[in-house]
Amino acid sequence: MSLTLIVLLPFIGAVLPAIMIRAGRNACATATGSVTLLALILLMAKAPAVIAGEVFQVSYSWLPELGLNVTFFLDGLGLLFATLILGIGLLIIIYARFYLSKDDPMGRFYVFLLLFQGAMVGIVLSDNILLLLIFWELTSLSSFLLIGYWKHLPAGRQGARMALAVTGAGGLAMIAGMLILGDIVGSYDLTVILQNADLIQASPMYLPALILILLGCFTKSAQFPFHFWLPHAMAAPTPVSAYLHSATMVKAGIFLMARMWPVLSGTPEWFYIVATAGLVTMVLGAWIAIFKHDLKGLLAFSTVSHLGLVTMLLGFGTPMAAVAGVFHIINHATFKAALFMTAGIIDHETGTRDIRRFGGLLNLMPIAGTIGIITAASMAGVIPFNGFISKEMMLEEAWHTMWLDQNWVVPLLATVGALFSVAYSFRFIFHVWLGKPRDENLPHHPHDPPFGMWAPPALLTVLVVLIGLFPSVIAGPLVAATAGAVIGGELPEYYLSLWHGLTPALGMSVIALIGGSLLLMRHGGLMSVTANLSRPDAKAMFDCGIAKAVALSRLVSDNLHNGSLQRYLAIMVIGSIGIGLSGFYAQPDFQSGSRELLEVSPPAAIGWLLLVVTCVAAVFMHHNRLLTLLLVGVVGLIVSLGFIYLSAPDLALTQISVEVVTVILMLLALNILPKETPKESTPGRKMRDGIVSIAAGLGVGGAIWAIMTRDLTNSISSYHLANSKVEGGGTNVVNVILVDFRGFDTFGEIIVLGIAALSIFALIETVTQGEAAKRLANWVVDHRRSADRHPMMMVVATRVMLPLSLMVGVYIFLRGHNEPGGGFIAGLVVSVALVMQYMASGFGWTQNRMKVNYHGMIGLGVIAAAITGVSAWVAGLPFLTSGFVHVHLPIVGEFELASAMGFDLGVFLTVVGAVMLALAKLSQVERMAEHVDINAEPMDHDPSATAAPAASPEKEA
Amino acid sequence: MPFVIELIISLLIVIGGAFLLIGSFGMIKLRDLLPRLHAPTKASTVGLGSLLIASMLFFWVERGHFTIHELLITLFIFLTAPITANLIAKAYMLLNVDPNKDLPPSKQDEGWATFDPIGPEGYDPSEEYQEKET
Amino acid sequence: MMKRYLPHPLLTLALLIVWVFLVNEISAGAVIFGLILAIIIPLITANFWPGRPSVRNAYAICEYGLVVLWDILVANVIVAGLILFRKTESLESKSVVVPLDLTSPEAITTLAGTITMTPGTVTIDLSADAKSLLVHCLHAPDPQEVVDEIKHRYERRLKEIFE
Amino acid sequence: MGDWIVVPIVLPAVMAALIVLAVRHDIILQRVFSITATVALVAVTLSLLIFASGNGPEMYALSDWPAPFGIVLVLDRLSAMMVFLTSLLGLGVVLFASSEWDKRGKHFHALFQFQLMGVNGAFLTGDIFNLFVFFEVLLIASYGLMLHGAGADRLKAGMQYVVINLTGSSLFLVGVGMIYSVTGTLNMADLAIQVPNVASGDAALLRAGALILLLVFCVKAALVPVHFWLPGTYANAPAPVAALFAIMTKVGAYSVLRVYSLAFGDTAGDMAWLAAPYILPAALVTLVLGMTGVLAAKRLNSLIAFSVIGSMGTLLIAVGLFTPEAISAGLYYLLHSTFSAAALFLIADLVVSRRGQFGDSLHTAPRFHQSGFLAVLFFVGAIGMAGMPPLSGFIGKLQILDAARDSDAMVWIWAIILVTSLMCIVGFGRAGSVLFWKSASVDGEITVEGAKWPVLPIIASCGMLGALVALTIFAGPVTDYLQGVSVQLFDTSQYIEAVLGENALSLIGQ
Amino acid sequence: MEFLVASSIGLLTMCGTYLLLRGRTFPVVVGLAMLSYAVNVFLFAMGRLTINMPPILRDGVTEYTDPLPQALVLTAIVISFGMTALIVVLSIRTFLEIGNDHVDGRPAGAPSEAGDKN
Amino acid sequence: MIEYALNFGFVCVALALLMNLYRLTAGPTTADRVLAVDTMAINAIALLVLYGIGKATAMYFEGALLFAMFGFVSTVAYCKFVLRGDIIE
Ligand code: NA
Ligand code: NA
């Protein structure tokens, strides 16, 4: 339980700084510190037992299906890292309180820091590798926030993004590796995995898993060739650098290699990948560090180098090397965190981090200077500090390591690395603290910082010295416990002490010290040499890489999604032809149909000819839009005739009614739109579209040919035919299907119509704003117009037509259940009759006489349709269940009342409402364009009116 | 079916068909829209009329009861054909006829409605058009 | 009362007949239902037809109808002949002006319609003040004859019916 | 409870009609109606979800006609989950829109309710033509919503959206027609029975029809190469609408899953798992192109839109594997990606509305109000979309990777999912950096009129993010449920029995 | 007869598709209308062709054409009508807002939309 | 006998339709085309009537009725469009 709490505390506590910042910076820091302290205390309470060899474990089920569970365990390795994370974390919190300036949002800083801390603790305590992955990626995210904390600095932003990209990428690789690992073992539990070294190493998936996991480790721990992000992350505030980039996050990779050491190490693959990468990193990082003028840059590359050192040790794969690695982790954490904090102090006090401007700072800030010198000496591996001991152990291990059967490679390079290490460490000592001040005009006048700022590094410095002097007393148990956990078996014999006698390692050490000192003396010269060397600039490469990736993405994405509907549609059409054909040809044994075909009658042939001619004419003459419309109208006419000919009277009625409303709609549109389509397609485009269209036509035509020439032996519609009259109460089976068997379709269908009208209304409502309004205001009528708006003969004719049409509408409506007709067609008939009034007598006059609101009609229609359904529902029957009765009235005789009629009434109302709303609204645009006042009189001139008309045109509201 | 009735029906059908054909033939034979307009508006209506009468007769004899709803179609056609012809003619004249040269004057205060405006307060949309043109 | 609910008995009658045409049967149920509709529909559409002319001269209507029907038949044969057997060049097509005495829009429209449906004439326009009809003749060697016939045969009768 | 299956369809429909009929002039009343209805919808769909998790598939025969002759609705674990998801999302959207968006055009709430109706109908129906009808309902409502408030860019994008989808609708009918023409049925369960019994000479037609239908579903699901409508549409739709559209692509995915596991699944003989060889490669390409778009984006909204394409790729990879594990993983990801896309669109709107003239262009602008708070929201949303821990996206991706293990394309799947995750991270990192960090180095501050702390939008956005958190925390129970979904999907006999009765099963030898 | 219908459907599809692929909204709308004719007839024809067997039940008549496709086509016609109405209005609205009727909202000859100026 | 008459009728109407088609495509004025379409509607009604007689069914009457009604409306709409541009004003 308390194990979980240790992990959760930083996360839960992360809300505290956000809240406490309102109470002041001290309160904020104190709250943050207490959280960490509490976690540290909880951890320390377990430390003795762990050091004694006990392993704590706790487990909660989270996603057992995947094998992802919240399980933590605490062993020596976990203890060491958790202690480092929480302990150094605490110091950093204190340090940051004084480091951050008044302008820096401290609450946010601590929130991020605690989140990061929690993630780190999570990594080192996870007993489930999927859980570990989660924490792993969380550290990437929280470090992204921390590095980018000073968001006004471009370097900070770029560094943050680079760190995120690199470590994030590694993390993603690691996900794959971990999943493979889990697959090999059959469990994602670390404790289980650690038991299965043989299984893992024997698996053919071992190498992929290893590489993928190492990618994660190397990126996070800034190992060659992924070392480049770390220095750029130094744009972060110094506490962040100290915490993340020396003590904790960069060690996550090391931790994981150590954690996985029992199962992954010991193979040649491991050795050559890990040890080599470590070795190269160690040397390269140190070399670069020598020439960094930025204090933190120097420390950053030294960190890279030291991480390489540990990596190399782990890579050796021997228990002894592992012990050395573990010990160096501890030592490095102590001196490097202190060094960073010192660097922060210098930065803070002098206002610069440029080494070239320093010198003699020891005199000005003796406390910081002492701390800096001691810790730097430890970094250089100078007796008697802790760095010396672990470096000796490293050299010792290097001495007897063969690399590709060569015994000199590793020792030589290790010595060179150590030598460089001495050089940059001494540079830090001599160029910063000792000697003469080189720049009298530092931004600030430096002096020792407040206690809170130097105490944390001082504490670490004390540790540096004490571990150096009494290694086995101070660090021994921890090293033992940790190394035991890493090795996962018997510890080798080793002694943690300053003096091991005259060993080869000592010799190498001495060479390194002397060589390093000499190198530093020639620093100036070397500097000019290296300055002239064109080294690959990692940041530039990374930026260039990202820029290339973005450019490539844009090239691909923008060219593909170029906004051309024509292309999108062509692709879609080609895709559908392709997928249809692929299906057709993927299925063997296609047989042509054997259904007896119908005779071709002469009228049918003529109809067909008409259709062909009009279709083709419509394509070839489509530039003349009005003509196109006429031709398409003829197509509609022929299709309707065809429906009648082929036993579908309902379809014909519907088609012909829809046709006319569509024509009216299109004409309304055409008045606004250009009357001609410009000829702009290139011959190539026409060719392409022609081919695509022909293919589509052949495909669809072929398919329906194949369908019509074969029989359909059983269809659900036989049931409809059988039950339409008896159960559905209607002899028009199509109508019974529409209002009853499949009434739900119709319910949806009228809603589509209603929505269309509402959308049209909404679309046109906005026409009065913006560009559209301007265009309408400046509209120029571009065609000759007749003088009479409302020809008298037409007005009179439509007046006669209206009652007739309504009569027809009622007739069509009522008979729908038994004969061709129904609510939809009736609705269109009535709509057309009304539209005729609008066309003949003008909008203004007609609208003034129209008592119904079309919106309401749509709503009412849908509700009416729904009511017939809901009333069945309320009665405990399924929605839309219909009933019918035969009513007998005197004189009138017997007639049928079906609830489906209520439904059909809903259809009727919706259709009328929708059509009228859409047309009426659309015509509003026209009137705006034509700048015509709406009319109050139905005819331009009424010959029967004796007096001159009094009413003047009304301006439309 | 009595032969006479059958004969009448057949004749009506033949006449109807012939008139329809003539109507459409006139439409392609005549040179100009206004003459053309005569052909379908008249020939077709009579052609259709005879077919509808044939149909009425046929169903009367065939089904035994007098069907009258064909009359409704005839009614519609007779009601609408003049309007159609009028509007088509107007549409033609507007774009193809010069009212001052090609048409006789109306002999009234106002000219032909297609060209000369009248209405409440002398509303004249074509003036608007002219203005914008200049 | 009667006036209020049955303002246009003729229209109601016409609609009733239309209904009977539509349902294609003469039964009590059909007639009653048709009657209901024929009363309701004129009421709800009254707004759209202000000043419906009251036409009561049933005899005149019948006479007019028969005359027109006959003329239509004749006209068709004549026009058919013109179309089929005359060279298009030899047709004397022209537009003639028919000054009107009628003032009711319904009457004018009926006249115009009649002209269109009868021999070789189509009403192609109306003067803006509705005082003249522009009639196109397919073949009219003597325009005045056409005008006279229209005024005599149709307009006179329509005046009786409508005014 | 079975009686209530129709309610998620009828309730919004009636509510929309009522809004149009009664309160169209009063925006406050519209909001009250709309929000109340949506809350009620959440309650109903939750009850249905609970019901479905404790029962087998439940059929609802509309008009009381027996299947396959009438239209049936079917509530099973999958459809119950989808309607619940829809209503939750809908609630967030309506809350967000009720602050201000709904005033920018007419009829927002009516269209919104109709949209819910269409989506719910598509999820619940067990009839393939009825599915078409609901597709059309949801599409036309979406056209209306998409164009809500108009504006040049929106109209341009809307035009493309509408035309592409209308073309898709035509294809839908062709597909349905071909299927009916050889099977004689429209009922999905009946189809499952008819498909294996189709004469071999007719099978080619059936297969071609089924594949054309698949293409149509893929248009909705924004699968490459028929995804082109999405970037413009989502990027230019009003924010709450874009958020609501998060469910629209899922309708496509759902339909693929439903039809191609039921009728063209295990029992389909020759045509078993018909869709798989098409979906998987296309999904992989979709994911790559989506995340390429994320990397390439120059506008925030198009960044999010492309990430939606990417997430559809991820989801359809899982669907395309057609294994129980993959599908439950995919469904988990579906839940996740719906909320995360919605959240991002909503948050983006809060950001964009504060950036004044800078809008959603990924261009450095001066600071704006609440940029800190919004940065947090954006960060969380981006984590969700990129599939970074600790949010559900990560768990979803892990599950999909895990489920892809046995696939022949495993290497491709893993590599593409992981690499594109990185692209997404980089893309969102760049965007976030420009929006929230770079502004710190620019002088001045943008001030825009409007409520400083718009309560409803913030509640809605946080609610969407909260859903991600809940999905994460309750990953176990959710996955339990989803495994139940997979079981039901793969054991089609349950569905068929529920719809057609026990006797029908003998026809397919189960 | 079947051939006439099949070829008509094919032709309608062909012409509809060609118009659909044009660059201006009006032909596209017309193309969609033609496509919906094609599809409606397709859907209708999937019930096979029959002459003079309308699905209106009559005493003594046993043979009827398949009514279901007809019902489906009716639904499809209505829906495509609603869709056509919307897209017609949309094309006007877009034209008014943008000033040209290109489907991509750009004038003739203009290069494809150059993304966004970043 | 009726059958022969019907066949004659069909042929006449079919030819008439073809002539209409010619006028529709040849124009030359829009009015000509509108006239052609209007006449087509009339011929279509004739076709329906003939067909109804041929099949001895009244099923197609409503079709003919609506053709008559709607043929008129669309012709009016086209003409109004040519005359005024705005058909509802
Ligand atoms: Na029923
Ligand atoms: Na249509």
Automatic annotation (TrEMBL), chain A:
What are the Low complexity biased-composition ranges?
944-957
Segments forming domain MrpA C-terminal/MbhE: 685-765
Transmembrane as a keyword of this entry, yes or no, is yes
- Cited PANTHER family: NA(+)/H(+) ANTIPORTER SUBUNIT (PTHR43373), NA(+)_H(+) ANTIPORTER SUBUNIT A (PTHR43373:SF1)
Q: Name one GO cellular component term.
A: plasma membrane
Annotated source species: Thalassospira profundimaris
- Region (Disordered) location: 935-957
Stored InterPro entries: CPA3_Na-H_Antiporter_A, MnhB, MrpA_C/MbhD, MrpA_C/MbhE, ND/Mrp_TM, Proton_antipo_N
Domain Na+/H+ antiporter MnhB subunit-related protein: from-to ranges = 794-916
TM regions (residue ranges): 6-23, 35-56, 76-96, 108-125, 131-150, 162-185, 205-230, 270-291, 367-389, 409-430, 451-474, 494-520, 568-588, 600-620, 627-646, 652-670, 691-708, 750-768, 792-812, 824-845, 857-880, 900-920
NADH:quinone oxidoreductase/Mrp antiporter transmembrane domain segment(s): 126-404
What protein am I looking at?
Monovalent cation/H+ antiporter subunit A
- Primary subcellular site in the record, as a coarse category: membrane
**Topology of this chain in the membrane:** Multi-pass membrane protein
TrEMBL record, chain B:
UniProt GO molecular function: sodium:proton antiporter activity
Residues annotated as region Disordered? 105-134
Lineage, top-rank taxon, reads Bacteria
Pfam families annotated for this entry? Answer: PhaG_MnhG_YufB
Q: Does the keyword Ligase apply?
A: no
Is the keyword Transmembrane helix assigned to this protein? Answer: yes
- Mind telling me which InterPro entries this protein's record contains? PhaG_MnhG_YufB
Q: Which UniProt keywords apply?
A: Membrane, Transmembrane, Transmembrane helix
Membrane-traversing stretches: 7-28, 43-61, 73-95
Annotated protein name in UniProt: Cation:proton antiporter
TrEMBL record, chain D:
Instruction: Note the InterPro entries from the entry.
Output: CPA3_Na-H_Antiporter_D, NADH_UbQ_OxRdtase, ND/Mrp_TM
Q: Which UniProt keywords apply?
A: Cell membrane, Membrane, Transmembrane, Transmembrane helix
Q: Please list the GO biological process terms of this entry.
A: ATP synthesis coupled electron transport
Q: Which residues cross the membrane?
A: 6-23, 32-51, 71-96, 108-125, 131-150, 162-183, 203-230, 242-263, 275-296, 303-324, 330-352, 373-391, 411-432, 453-475
Coiled coil segments of this chain? none
Under the GO molecular function aspect, what terms does this record hold?
NADH dehydrogenase (ubiquinone) activity
Which region is the signal sequence?
none
Membrane topology, from the record: Multi-pass membrane protein
Q: What is its main location?
A: membrane
Q: Which Pfam families match?
A: Proton_antipo_M
Indicate the segments forming the NADH:quinone oxidoreductase/Mrp antiporter transmembrane domain, all copies: 127-422
Where does the record say this protein resides? Cell membrane; Membrane
Protein family membership? Belongs to the CPA3 antiporters (TC 2.A.63) subunit D family.
Q: What is this protein called?
A: Cation:proton antiporter
Automatic annotation (TrEMBL), chain E:
Q: What family does this belong to?
A: Belongs to the CPA3 antiporters (TC 2.A.63) subunit C family.
Q: Where in the cell is it found?
A: Cell membrane
What name does this protein carry? Answer: NADH-ubiquinone oxidoreductase subunit 4L
- Fetch the InterPro entries from UniProt: CPA3_antiporter_subunitC, NUOK/Mnh_C1-like
Which key words tag this protein in UniProt?
Cell membrane, Membrane, Transmembrane, Transmembrane helix, Ubiquinone
Q: Which Pfam families match?
A: Oxidored_q2
**Keyword Membrane on this protein?**
yes
Leader sequence residues: none
